[in-house]
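Anyone? Bumping this.
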Amino acid sequence: MAAFPLIERSAYQSATSIDVARCAGVSQSTVSLVLSGKAQGRVSEATQERVRECARELCYLPNVAAQTLRLGTSRAVALLVPDVTNPFFSRVLRGAQRAAQAAGYTVALVDTGRGRWEEQSFQALRAGPVDGYLLFQVTPPDELARDERVVLIETEAPNRPSVRFDIDAGATAAFEHLVELGHRRIGHLAAAWDAPTFHAREAARRRVLGDAGIDPGEQPRVTTPIGIEDAHAAAGELLATEPTAVFCDDDFIAAGLYLAARDQGVRIPGELSVVGFDDMDFARVLEPALTTVALDGERLGETAFDLLEARLAGRKPRKRVVLPAELLVRDSTAAPRR
Amino acid sequence: MAAFPLIERSAYQSATSIDVARCAGVSQSTVSLVLSGKAQGRVSEATQERVRECARELCYLPNVAAQTLRLGTSRAVALLVPDVTNPFFSRVLRGAQRAAQAAGYTVALVDTGRGRWEEQSFQALRAGPVDGYLLFQVTPPDELARDERVVLIETEAPNRPSVRFDIDAGATAAFEHLVELGHRRIGHLAAAWDAPTFHAREAARRRVLGDAGIDPGEQPRVTTPIGIEDAHAAAGELLATEPTAVFCDDDFIAAGLYLAARDQGVRIPGELSVVGFDDMDFARVLEPALTTVALDGERLGETAFDLLEARLAGRKPRKRVVLPAELLVRDSTAAPRR
DNA sequence: GTATGTGCATAATACGTATGACGTACGGGA
DNA sequence: TCCCGTACGTCATACGTATTATGCACATAC
């Protein structure tokens, strides 16, 4: 017998409720009733036990595709992200995942490849396998823009449920911190990424500097892709303009700046103050420990899922949630020398 | 009309092939035939165009649950990981994701919560929504151990397809590097995690040190959870034994060691050489830049998916793949002082 | 005029589940 | 004897798709 691959193959094809029914000598309906716990008073206790026993023996597990088709729901949600390798996003995922698990949902992950999805990855998901969407820094295609099953993360659109950080407060605190230390020449090492979260940082910069009587248009500003090596190169360029402080859109960008400063023998914070954003794990290990704006990514993911789940359950929750962003002053910022 | 929510609701429920058929004045079979491209010579060109036009107009997308049920395949695979927040894993995910996308597959992500899944998360997946499994540092439950649809990543089991790094070569190179520099008191800051990848590091340590005439049992060794703050504490303890070099199971652990060394005024590499593992992004930004063993996580994920895909397609590929692990010597290692 | 194609499209079915509408047997009350 | 209630299950159907077998004209060949 062992020679017949068919024996082995039976392991692939899970038993169906019909197999269980045959085994227990009842109908398929009865099996379904019993195993879904809706057999109260309709099936005798003895029969129920027999069915459960057979199900156990045959390792029966309901076919999810069939369930989804029948019930019109898959208890799964999709999380769309522009780039899975961004470590900040893992926190969001973890939060969403945990909340989803608690609610009996599965999370399907899709990397949209920084906007290159243009319907593509999205098409793959629509109409079936998932009940809803969490869009992380992804602007929904028109089709989805009015869909009730979508929650926006770190993005907003008119009349859509969304979760985001109070980027404005965080960035404002960061720039005010630098101004209060006495800096007058404050650079901006900005992410070359067209997303609301970065627009908010830039807006805060213009406002705070303007209010302090510093012309924001006069301050050095260089954009760079998010990534240490890219930022390293861009930072070299920025340092040539001799700012006394630099606000970085991201901790990775700040790390690149550290490298450039090291190259040029510029001491932090003595000759250059640096502020990052996100509070990644490594921020406090940098030498000196990086002053940065802390964001609770897990809570972001968790909140987003809860919002979506409420929608799916027919409740109408608060439309927009704003989570705090807090400046963490460490050792990379100080008063300018002169 | 705008007052009727039913109008809006139509957006949720995607059009079915029957709707398209009605619109085009043909049968559902014809629609299916046309849209799946199997209508060659069976349906007139005019009708085909009409069907396609209707499908476009109604934004028709095939219901994936129905397709899965009918075809017995979902073109989706599950990636199971012990902890989504581990940044190393994001690389694996990205690699798997990219390969999957190219092959027309979707990746569903499941966080098993470090082994706490005990069938649980797994049950949720079996029998339906996915065609196969990628198990990253996760030991399969008995049920799955013989399943052909499983590929093991960074784990191995008898007669199972798997992908892993040549951890032994990497760790060996690292310890030999330290020995060659002249170190005789070499600590091990080890991950408190029962996984093959860490056993391999330990085995290499014992072998290399033994071969060099250094008793591995005499060398200081402390275990710690993976995470900078945990490692920081554990490293304090390790430094009390005054090693001249420390091998860390992970770059995050190495980062914790940097923190502890800074606390105690121990200079790297002058008084202490440090080697990490993984080559995380931040490794070369540390001061001094961290000597570490580089692993190509993306390639790991990619290879794993390809292996699984080959299985699913009925091909029988190489059972075990081993990817290189290469020592990257930077500035955190030097000869001991005396 | 009957067989033989051929070009075009449809009917019928199966995938595996959940569920509302029915059956059946039995015992008790009138 | 007839009717009804209850306890225990089953039947039939629908979800939306892919596919096999079948049908129907109409033209061609003999």
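Late reply, but here is one note on the structure posted above: Residues 26-30, 33, 41-44, 47, 66, 68-72, 128 of chain B lie near DNA strand C (CB under 10 Å from a C1').
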